[in-house]
TrEMBL record:
Belongs to the class-I aminoacyl-tRNA synthetase family. It is an enzyme of class 6 (ligase). Keywords: Aminoacyl-tRNA synthetase, ATP-binding, Ligase, Nucleotide-binding, Protein biosynthesis. GO terms for cellular component: mitochondrial matrix. Pfam families: tRNA-synt_1b. Its EC number is 6.1.1.2. This is tryptophan--tRNA ligase. It comes from Rhinopomastus cyanomelas.
Length: 135
């Protein structure tokens, strides 16, 4: 949600990929891809954003904290980031999502969006459940 220098962003992508591989992820057993190259993430985020009300997003604690830390009114990207996270989860019809305590409310938003979508358009998205970990 913050502007990045293109060269720094590209290096961050490479560094993150290297860290994932260093953790032991086997690319022969899983698929690694750059999410930013999959337009369906942004497309689904747009659709889900059209089903999500602004007051709900404004109540999220992360919005309040990050907006305050940015010493400004905040950006649309920051406000709608939880909808993009919901799209990231729902696009793959995820049923279980590992989250930290700080992301539980965002997962609850994804659950609510999935239920709202399903009620309006028919059963399509499974409602994802949290896998909480101490780590």
């Amino acid at each position: 949600t913050m502007p990045k220098e293109p060269t720094v962003l590209r290096q961050n992508i490479l560094d993150t990929t290297a860290a994932i591989l260093a953790c032991g992820i086997d690319p022969k057993k899983c698929i690694l891809f750059r999410q930013s190259l999959v337009p369906e993430h942004a497309e689904l985020a747009w659709i889900l954003g059209c089903l999500t009300n602004v007051p709900r997003l404004l109540r999220l604690p992360q919005w309040k904290m990050k907006r305050a830390s940015q010493n400004s009114e905040g950006t649309v990207g920051l406000l709608t980031y939880p909808v993009l996270q919901a799209a990231d989860i729902l696009l793959y019809k995820s049923t279980r999502v590992p989250v930290g305590e700080d992301q539980v409310l965002h997962l609850e938003l994804a659950q609510d969006i999935a239920q709202h979508f399903n009620k309006k358009y028919g059963e399509f998205f499974p409602v994802p459940k949290a896998i909480l970990s101490e780590l």
